[in-house]
Amino acid sequence: MQHPAYYTWIVFAGVMAVSWWAFAGDPSPDLMATWLAGYFFEQGAVYPGSEGVFTMQPPDAWIAELDAAGHEGVVYPYVYPPLWAALASRVVGVLPFPLVEIVATLVNPLLLCGMVWLAARTARDSDVSVPLMTLAGSLLLLATLPGAAALEQNQPQIIVSFLVVAAIERSRAGAPVTAGLALAVAAAIKVSPALLVVAWLGAGRYRESLVFAIAGLCLALASVLLAGWPMHAAFLAELDAIRNTVLATFFTYGVDPVVAGLVPAGESQFILGRGGETAWHVVEKPAVWSMLSTLAMVTILAVAAVRFHAASRDGREPDVLGYPVFLVAVTLVSPLAWGYHYLAPMAFLPHLLAVFGLRTGLLALLAVLIPLTPQSFDLVRSLPVVSQMPAALGTATMILVGLLLHLAGRRRAGRPSGHLQRPPVSL
């Protein structure tokens, strides 16, 4: 099934139009966190200074300033490397936040659609065209909470996910420099994408890994030069607090929040967000729990390295769907796993259409879509069952995403593979 290449442009334009219609004008607290970090950069009030437990509350200086300005609504803390706060500090005095918000509202849906398009380009010997796969994947993300919440809040995770998918696609296309650079920038925004290097090393992708290491080192040095070491020490302390905290909300899809909701282990704190619009629970992990979480992550990394190495020993390229499966597994055991952290693996879901055929593939996509819609979220939240039921359902759905992609990869395992071959109809 082939479609003209310009269909892809139509999909991009349609996604941007729908996103603007649905989300333009909504608050962007996640984007504002970076803006405020830049605003308070010279004062050194970038990180909240969490002690032991990460409460997801912003620094007191932010609250005082926003209260004085009459700003209402939830405000989230800045939890990214100091580099971006330093760069933001050079922007806040030049561009007003509403203008930055408008630009982000226009660009983010293009990045969301772009990551699906890049993922579709990695499909080989597919009877389903790239434009059709891009359309199906984009609609899936628009209609489900991971994509919708990210667009509504202008979440930086969108560009991180785009860069991760770009790194995978460029690596498969035989462009190791671009792949390594893309992953380095993604890891410089949110540290976790760096774990993808484990899969690259296992698969023998040494050039990509070397470029990533060099570019990552350069970005780290630039960050220290621009922001200074004390701010990096504060950032590392914040990461340590996050690692030892379970943050349980309706939208955290991972093992830790589900376990915390079912088996209370440790003292739980109820946190009411600024403005009273949102609330969440935080639990300080006991030492045994932290140890088990670390063990789970190390086990996943070790298994991934072995499997990618085994798949590439005979000279064949490991199936591309091994990467999103790896990303799902890593995110499930990460200390803080928001629903939109699964955007990158979800971008590969249209491969199910190429592997299983349109009918079975569409049924599989519906099995993922239905539990993640806002309507399903509201329904499950109203049920008189476990309080964390929405998070449990979201976590189960992400496990389903990983299983479906794994099954698709196994089914395609016997097909010949090599460098990425451009689909018959593509951009």
UniProtKB/TrEMBL annotation:
<comment type="similarity">
    <text>Belongs to the glycosyltransferase 87 family.</text>
</comment>
<feature type="transmembrane region" description="Helical">
    <location>
        <begin position="99"/>
        <end position="120"/>
    </location>
</feature>
<keyword id="KW-0812">Transmembrane</keyword>
<dbReference type="GO" id="GO:0016758">
    <property type="term" value="F:hexosyltransferase activity"/>
</dbReference>
<feature type="transmembrane region" description="Helical">
    <location>
        <begin position="241"/>
        <end position="266"/>
    </location>
</feature>
<keyword id="KW-1133">Transmembrane helix</keyword>
<feature type="transmembrane region" description="Helical">
    <location>
        <begin position="210"/>
        <end position="229"/>
    </location>
</feature>
<feature type="transmembrane region" description="Helical">
    <location>
        <begin position="352"/>
        <end position="373"/>
    </location>
</feature>
<feature type="transmembrane region" description="Helical">
    <location>
        <begin position="385"/>
        <end position="407"/>
    </location>
</feature>
<keyword id="KW-1003">Cell membrane</keyword>
<dbReference type="InterPro" id="IPR018584">
    <property type="entry name" value="GT87"/>
</dbReference>
<feature type="transmembrane region" description="Helical">
    <location>
        <begin position="287"/>
        <end position="308"/>
    </location>
</feature>
<feature type="transmembrane region" description="Helical">
    <location>
        <begin position="132"/>
        <end position="151"/>
    </location>
</feature>
<dbReference type="GO" id="GO:0005886">
    <property type="term" value="C:plasma membrane"/>
</dbReference>
<protein>
    <submittedName>
        <fullName>DUF2029 domain-containing protein</fullName>
    </submittedName>
</protein>
<feature type="transmembrane region" description="Helical">
    <location>
        <begin position="320"/>
        <end position="340"/>
    </location>
</feature>
<keyword id="KW-0472">Membrane</keyword>
<keyword id="KW-0808">Transferase</keyword>
<feature type="transmembrane region" description="Helical">
    <location>
        <begin position="6"/>
        <end position="23"/>
    </location>
</feature>
<feature type="transmembrane region" description="Helical">
    <location>
        <begin position="181"/>
        <end position="203"/>
    </location>
</feature>
<dbReference type="Pfam" id="PF09594">
    <property type="entry name" value="GT87"/>
</dbReference>
